[in-house]
Amino acid sequence: MTRPHDLLAAVADGVDPGPFALVRREGADHLELFTGTVRTADRLADIPLPDGPPGPRTLALVPYRQIGERGFACVDDGVPLECLVISARHRIGLAEALDVLPDRPVRSTGAGFDIADDEYAATVGRVLADEIGRGEGANFVIHRTMRATVQGSPLVAALAALRRLLLRERGAYWTFVVHTGSRILVGASPERHVSVDDGLVMMNPISGTFRHTGAAADRDALLRFLHDPKEVEELYMVLDEELKMMATVAEHGGQVVGPYLREMAHLAHTEYLLAGRGSRDVREVLRETMFAPTVTGSPMENACRVIARHERTGRRYYAGVLALLGRDDGGRQTLDAPILIRTAELSPAGELRVPVGATLVRHSTAAGEVAETHAKAAGVLAALGLGPDAPEPGPRPEIRYDHSGSARLTPRRDPEQSYADDPEVRAALAARNAPLARFWLDQRTPGASALAGLAGLRALIVDGEDTFTGMLAHQLGALGLRVDRRDWREPGPVDGYDLVVVGPGPGDPGDLSAPKMAAMRALLVGLLESGRPTLAVCLGHQLLSGLLGLPLHRREAPYQGLQRDVAVFGATRRVGFYSTFTARADADRVASAYGPVELSRDPADGAVHALRGPGFAGVQFHPESVLSRDGLAVLADLLGHLLANPALTGHGPADRG
């Protein structure tokens, strides 16, 4: 049963046609039908990707519990990693698909969230106070699930829902139905997680949610949304987090493109694209990018702990990915993986689950995040008969052609309903890049930022459970250092390194009973006593401050994803903070057991933004962050001090934008 008409006719007649997937990818004027057999795998490395002619090989349904492969915490619900091993692939035109897909209402009963609004709001409050407020991270995503029962054939219902999504939803990266025999997934995901094509790795951080009604007043509300500090900072934070991932899977890190507005039927999002060259096996790329910060939080490892503490059930496939693996004409591996959000899961018995989540940041309100979960579920729920439809954007989508002759599908709709080309909207989006680091926004020529005084020198970065260290490694490498990274749990010598960086991470630096804090403090003691040049960043800076006798305080309002202009040893620098704790001092110079220390302090409260002494330095902010416009200049200046090379000091390439 390989022809689309045969398969859909069999479903309409109540026959199970066997495993298949029906997918429309962003901008395509057709759907792809994949058929084959289903097998399960224990690990991402076990996903089959055999040699052979070009094209897709396997469609993997990756559940959230696979995050355990990285050693991260999760509520393990036992949901399997299923793989549709593709034996046949067919194309079906969009108009033809709309004609053959079942055009009938979907009826669902008993709908309700598994967690009531007031209970979810209470969870939001706890996360804001107990996690973000105590320095456990910058943002966290907590989910809830709408549950119901579908009447009639679940497979027919899923295909009917697909038809309605194709007609009424817009802005989706993938619109799809996947049937494995043990489950059905149907959805319209707006977000590419990661793709690999011709060695180009791309990621697509999306954040910020604007709920619209289709009314003319939406334009003014949209402009207010685009200038809302909470929404702006939320996107910056997930951008930083995905840049951390790109630092691992792309040889030179990721270049930032955008931001853009992604409009959907019930809401709009803001987004960036990240691109970089990589050579890893695509299954490794999947593993190293589990999972998007837009559905977990940051820093990633601790976000998973926070999720496990506050979510009472497993996530099943929510926040995981669909992953289409294949090969191109040259035999190179390809990958296309949308995030499993705005997706419903149906069992053969008709049990329906639609999980959704909200991103909690320091500006969040409980009521706002409750409303966001309702808005995010609206599109899929409407397609499944559980909510009002969005207006249908015309009788049929319109096919247009771009300058290269490629077909692009755009829905027919009133131009007033699309804001992406509105000059004020475009200006508001472009303005978001003005304060950001050009290091991540511009095309980087290898060696262009290298400083002659660093040639041949080696640096070791010790990671405190925050992969900002990957971005830091790229910046230090761009300046000319040879860089290694090591987890704080991995003991090892520091001999042979010209510089040791004690890096960032979550947690309370005053809790020296915590193994991480004790280990990183002991490392700093050894470095200071040996006189080895040492740079401490964020958590490392806090621990160093404690060793120098400076008191530590927890801020009343966390500095998570906050950008500020601060004085750093006589120069005003625009930098980004991700911290809840800070050291404080009453003077610009203090004595310590390791020599005199010069401090750069906040004039308002004495918070220590940076310090330096004989052979050591520390910064509370993140010079590697996309929020640190002047981060590269700060690093160059500090390296000049640490490595006793005056030629570097004051000559760092200032990131002025």
UniProtKB/TrEMBL annotation:
SUPFAM superfamilies: ADC synthase, Class I glutamine amidotransferase-like. GO terms for molecular function: anthranilate synthase activity. The keyword Lyase applies. This is anthranilate synthase. Residues 118-376 form the Chorismate-utilising enzyme C-terminal domain. Residues 386-422 are annotated as: Disordered. Gene3D superfamilies: 3.40.50.880, Anthranilate synthase. InterPro entries: ADC_synthase, Anth_synth_I-like, Chorismate_C, Class_I_gatase-like, GATASE, TrpG/PapA_dom. The lineage of its organism: Bacteria, Bacillati, Actinomycetota, Actinomycetes, Micromonosporales.
